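INFO batch 0412 | record 1 of 1 | parsing
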Amino acid sequence: MSDATSDAAPFNYLDLVSSRDSLHAKVRAILEKANHPTTPQAEAETAMTIAT
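INFO prediction complete | emitting tokens
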């Protein structure tokens, strides 16, 4: 009897961490844009909505 997970790709923890770190970096960049003094109000509000 074959294992149901035998055809699945091996789980790589470093890929998960890298993806999470990449997502955090993107959210931080969006928040920095939203909080920048020269960002127009409408753009800042949109960035805050995207980040939350």
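INFO post-check: The CA atoms of residues 34 and 42 lie 9 Å apart.
INFO record closed
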